[in-house]
């Protein structure tokens, strides 16, 4: 069940990044069945006119559909990459552009990057998937528009502060996705990390987004916390432990991939 859940979460992330591809895929399938129908009709009429044309149209569509699935599979395989020492700030400007394209013009996307952010040990693709899930939730919470803010912070936590968050004392990098949306009622707030919990209409939500984010934070030895006020908005914050081997990571960037430490 664990593996199946992980797989489902992976597919969910794939689905969200590549929603447009499903649409393209459907169009190609429509082209293929259209060609088959035309061939079937010709055969029933006992005529061979245009059959070769329909065959090659159908074949072409099938080949493009296969190429699409290959891209999807290659993408989902990338999800299992191992963690590397990363200063998250370096990937956020490009990520924010992806979010802007995804959420559309009625939602403003702001970036607030901490100066000299500490490095963390993290898988960049998984982090981006987690953040994209959060941004899509934020957009869904703002049907008539609003603001998504993505912020990073160096966060040293003493014993007491760490305990309050279910963490060990130490240095953390915090990354927060905030929205100005509808917020989450208290009863729901306790359930949002449960797999398959969703308040979205059938077909538009899987209830796996936040449980995937939760799993990602856990795997990265961090935690995810959510704060929300109905009518005002929601903050989701991922805490990731500071990676103290920054020097080594800087050196490793100059090594070929097969020589880099994991
Ligand atoms: P899904 O988005 O498919 O419903 P998630 O696990 O990502 O699955 O979210 C579960 C539920 O948590 C959502 O259906 C929604 O009710 C609530 N939720 C998550 N993020 C937000 C947000 N930023 N604002 C308001 N509600 C949210």
Automatic annotation (TrEMBL):
GO terms for molecular function: ATP binding. Residues 20-244 form the Histidine kinase domain. Keywords: ATP-binding, Coiled coil, Nucleotide-binding, Phosphoprotein. Transmembrane segments: none annotated. It comes from the Bacteria. This is histidine kinase. It comes from Novosphingobium cyanobacteriorum. The lineage of its organism: Bacteria, Pseudomonadati, Pseudomonadota, Alphaproteobacteria, Sphingomonadales. The chain holds residues 164 to 425 of 554 of the full protein.
């Amino acid at each position: 069940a664990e593996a199946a859940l992980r797989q489902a979460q992976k597919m969910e992330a794939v689905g969200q990044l590549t929603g447009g591809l499903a649409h393209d895929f459907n169009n190609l399938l429509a082209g293929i069945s259209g060609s088959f129908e035309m061939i079937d009709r010709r055969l029933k009429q006992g005529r061979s006119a245009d059959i070769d044309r329909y065959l090659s149209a159908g074949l072409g569509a099938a080949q493009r559909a296969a190429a699409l699935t290959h891209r999807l599979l290659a993408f989902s395989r990338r999800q299992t990459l191992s963690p590397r020492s990363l200063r998250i700030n370096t990937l956020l400007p490009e990520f924010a552009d992806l979010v802007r394209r995804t959420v559309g013009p009625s939602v403003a996307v702001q970036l607030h990057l901490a100066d000299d952010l500490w490095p963390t040990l993290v898988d960049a693709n998984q982090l981006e998937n987690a953040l994209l899930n959060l941004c899509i939730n934020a957009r869904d919470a703002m049907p008539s528009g609003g603001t998504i803010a993505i912020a990073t912070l160096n966060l040293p936590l003493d014993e007491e502060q760490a305990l309050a968050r279910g963490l060990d004392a130490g240095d953390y990098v915090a990354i927060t996705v905030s929205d100005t949306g509808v917020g989450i009622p208290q009863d729901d707030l306790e359930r949002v990390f449960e797999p398959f919990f969703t308040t979205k209409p059938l077909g538009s939500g899987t209830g796996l987004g936040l449980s995937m984010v939760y799993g990602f934070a856990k795997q990265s030895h961090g935690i995810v916390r959510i704060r929300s006020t109905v009518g005002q908005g929601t903050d989701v914050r991922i805490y990731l432990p500071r990676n103290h081997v920054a020097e080594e990571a800087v050196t490793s960037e100059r090594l070929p991939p097969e020589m880099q430490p994991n």
